[in-house]
Design goal:
This protein has 17 helices and 22 strands. The chain is of the alpha/beta class and 546 residues long. It binds zinc ion.
């Protein structure tokens, strides 16, 4: 087994070479024309194995009570598209974790070898180590839980696992594979588990393949399953391995949480194509497929193209996730694809004295509080304010503040600074939770400049959103490169209302849209101001005065 050409060279100690050879000698292809023939790891599979079983150079091994901690990665997450052979691959890893040399035991010297004979397997397999290579041994009592959201899903993995064992040399060590579980030597077991199997979830497991974690959402009860299993693994020094399709980022799945945690002791395998390539364009789609299906030599890209094109007609987002291996939001996003990107101008924050309108969406302790601004020319931006020497943007995530409370006095100070620095024509503010502050601002700056604008009025809100969308489409509104605003705009979903109207909602509580709301309010304020005769000369005069 060697690194496939499309993967970088392996320049670290790993049990992966031994395990790859062990799999080839023991596991067989579970189905298809080559059923029963030795299972060889393909390019991407080998790449995953050499990484998951990467050993730390300072590792001492199980005789020093190091199990998971001998390895470079605590767990792995493999995100690959449909038909890349994730199922058979997971099955082969399960076999290795069941009766193969997956634990690090020490560093090899000249003449050291791994022999199946020493581990209760009569197959005759011998692997000669190179000096300095990590050596492997088997779990004394492996306990493996094949875990998925449904029994149907675990049955899928199981359907590849059983013939892989039954049709090859593994029958010598695993004589019987049951319908429900597989008994291993030394009281080990392979079980299948879903969120229903509460009693078994607390078990002290040695390996947990977690299948399709993109479907492990809070409503499925699988977040708890993942957490419980991680505790069980920690108790034994075992490790987990997630395999999944690209997930829907609105669902807050286990896959998403793992990925977004960005932990350095998790191995992430997530091939992708440049974002500039469009999945809707047939030629560009071919380039995307070529990139994400690399390392899967059996895949016929014409077949994949056929399936992708078919799914594109029904569910374009899912097609792009499943075959393009991309994180794509579900249907119902607020703006048409590309609209926000097209209207980005990134002119930064305009100079002091510029005539602006402001939109304010306030909160108490869960959603964000946000201010956005729009110039008379229709350029939107996130203003800044100063605290001591520090310049901060005018949005507040309660999680960043003591007791998860929005710092009201700081918001108030920011509003005052904006009125002092800019020529604020109008501020439209959603009164929810902030009525008394808005009253104060109105007293200080005049009630023709500061106005309540309640966003919970469906007809008015719909009219405002429609105007904002039309003005974005025609280029009458442009905006800065504020990442937080962009995220909130992309998060925002349309919620259908009676009479062909709609409002904006957040797809999940953790996906905020407050900066999108503040942007819509800023545009509403600016549009109304223009209609009321907000003349360009106002800003010119102010600029001259500076
Ligand atoms: Zn053997």
């Amino acid at each position: 087994m060697a690194s496939a050409p499309e993967f970088p060279p392996v320049e670290w100690p790993t049990l992966g070479w031994l395990i790859g050879d062990w799999i080839m000698a023991h596991c067989v292809i579970p189905d298809g024309f080559q059923k029963g023939e030795p299972f060889l790891l393909s390019g991407w599979q080998a790449w995953n194995v050499v990484n998951h079983y990467r050993v730390r150079p300072t590792a001492k091994g199980i005789h020093h009570n190091e199990f998971a901690s001998s390895f470079f990665y605590r767990r792995s997450q493999t995100t690959r598209p449909q038909k890349t052979g994730k199922g058979p691959f997971t099955s082969a890893i399960i076999c290795a974790e069941a009766v193969g040399p997956v634990l690090f035991i020490g560093w090899a010297e000249d003449g050291d070898y791994y022999s199946c004979r020493d581990h209760g397997c009569p197959c005759g397999f011998v692997y000669w180590y190179e000096a300095g290579e990590p050596m492997g041994t088997n779990w004394p009592t492996p306990l493996i839980q094949v875990t998925a959201t449904s029994e149907e899903q675990t049955a899928n993995v199981y359907a590849a696992l059983r013939p892989m064992i039954e049709n090859g040399p593994l029958t010598e060590i695993i004589p019987k594979t049951g319908e429900e579980f597989i008994r291993l030597p030394n009281d080990g077991r392979i079980d299948t588990v879903t969120s229903n199997a509460r009693s078994r979830l607390g078990a002290r497991v040695t390996f947990v393949p977690q299948d399709e974690t993109g479907l492990w959402t809070p409503t499925s009860g699988m977040i708890k399953v993942a957490e419980t299993q991680r505790r069980g693994l920690a108790g034994m020094g075992g490790r987990a391995w997630e395999t999944t399709n690209a997930w829907d980022p609105s669902e807050n799945s286990v896959a998403q949480r793992t990925y977004e945690s960005g932990m350095e002791d998790i191995f992430y395998d997530f091939p992708s194509a440049p974002v500039s390539l469009s999945f809707r364009n047939k030629q560009e789609r071919r380039k995307i497929l070529r990139a994400v299906y690399s390392g899967s030599p059996w895949v016929n890209l014409d077949d994949i193209e056929g399936e992708a094109a078919e799914l594109l007609k029904v569910d374009p987002q899912q097609a792009e996730r499943f075959f393009g291996n991309r994180l794509v939001y579900a249907q119902g996003t607020w703006l048409p694809e590309g609209r926000w990107e097209e209207t980005k101008r990134d002119n930064g924050e305009p100079p002091d004295g510029t005539a602006i309108a402001l939109g304010f969406d306030g909160s108490e302790n869960n959603d964000w509080t946000a201010l956005r601004a729009e110039t008379i020319d229709g350029y939107q931006f996130t203003p800044t304010y100063r605290v001591g020497d520090e310049t901060r943007p005018t949005f507040w995530d309660p999680r960043a503040w003591p007791d998860n409370q929005i710092p009201r006095s700081e918001v108030d100070a920011a509003v005052e600074q904006l009125f002092a620095r800019y020529k604020v024509s109008r501020l439209y503010a959603d009164p929810q939770d902030w009525r008394s502050e808005i009253g104060e601002w109105s007293l200080r700056h005049g009630e023709d400049h500061v106005m309540e604008w309640a966003t919970n009025r469906p007809a008015a809100m719909f009219a405002s959103l429609s105007r904002f969308e039309t003005d974005l489409a025609t280029g009458r509104v442009t905006h800065d490169d504020c990442k937080a605003t962009e995220t909130h705009v992309f998060n925002a979903r349309k919620k259908a209302l009676p009479g062909q109207k709609y409002g904006l909602i957040k797809p999940a509580d953790h996906q905020k849209i407050d900066l999108a709301m503040a942007s819509a309010l800023a545009h509403e304020a600016a549009s109304d101001a223009r209609e009321a005769g907000w003349a360009r000369k106002v800003s010119r005069r102010v600029l001259v005065l500076r």
